User: What shape does this take?
Amino acid sequence: MSQAVTSLPPLSRIGILGGGQLGRMLALAAAELGLDCVVYEPEADCPAGRVATRCITAPWDDQASLAAFAQAVDVITFEFENVPAASLTFLASCKPIRPGLASLTQTQDRLVEKTFIQSLGLATAPFAACDSLADLEAAAAQIGLPAILKTRTLGYDGKGQIRLRAADHLAQAWQDLGGQSAILEGFIDFDREVSVILARAHTGQIAAFDVPENVHKAGILHTSTVPARISADLAAKAVAQASSIADALDHIGVLAVEFFVVGADQLIVNEIAPRVHNSGHWTQDGCAADQFQQHIRAIAGWPLASPRRHTNQIIMTNLIGSDIEAWQGLSAEPDTYVHLYGKRQSREGRKMGHVNRLKP
Ligand code: AMP
Assistant: This one.
């Protein structure tokens, strides 16, 4: 069912929950369309706050600040999907949140997410819930090893994950994870990883970008290359599966679905991100309207732009930690476009920027 939305005119105000690089690039895209942004972020001096009209620095559970934020905006969106449920419920009672809460509640918890994906008839890795060491032992016997133990909530960029090989001690892994609720996931011996980045409007219209192929290093995205080395049929199948997820959530905005590809034609859904996604950053230099503009268009009730790619091949490479030190050389490379997030401190594993290399 599509939701009733009227187009927000220029000078309307978009509220963004979360002030990281995704919020920064969303705020820049909104500014291009003549819209103002208010960012809400607990940490001071955040990347998005420095390019937004206004930034509210307050904890997620500060009701007075949340109320002031809601008061200051026309629509609320998020770049960070782990905003506490109570804060979201409160905000939703003040102003429209797009995407809606279903997109968050079905994807914040890996157990709920995988169960939801299977309910749509889509494949996932085998999984089992683990709330105790006894559960983990039973799950390992059922699923087999190697496998990956993942916390149910708050994991990202490979954090909150432990790979288990046959000889590993389950008790040690359970202790290392701190006894948090988790799932054990069977290890998929995939041939490649791909993702679908799509935008869905309130009318139900969907515009999907071309499918990139993603390479991770130590659980963190390293490169995304379009086009992925998969058949047109498989790419269409991936888009159809991601679209069925977006429809089931009645999602408004950009949504990303990560897949494992096994052989020439098998797709396994790994993860859903109900937001703009790192594997869609290539669109900034590969499409006339990138994923950030599509998201702002969708949540503001504007028509979606064409997702057509205008360059033969694009390789997006993340700049992680000290990689940022190479910015000067990278900025001199031909057909290479540098995007930096304005973070003052670089740390190991921290995303500092990315480069898009075009092969016209
Ligand atoms: P995630 O945070 O769950 O997306 O995991 C990060 C990365 O770890 C994935 O993109 C894969 O490269 C790898 N990974 C996660 N789960 C599995 C799995 N079940 N089998 C094989 N590789 C995995």
About this structure: The mean pLDDT is 95. The longest strand covers residues 253-262.
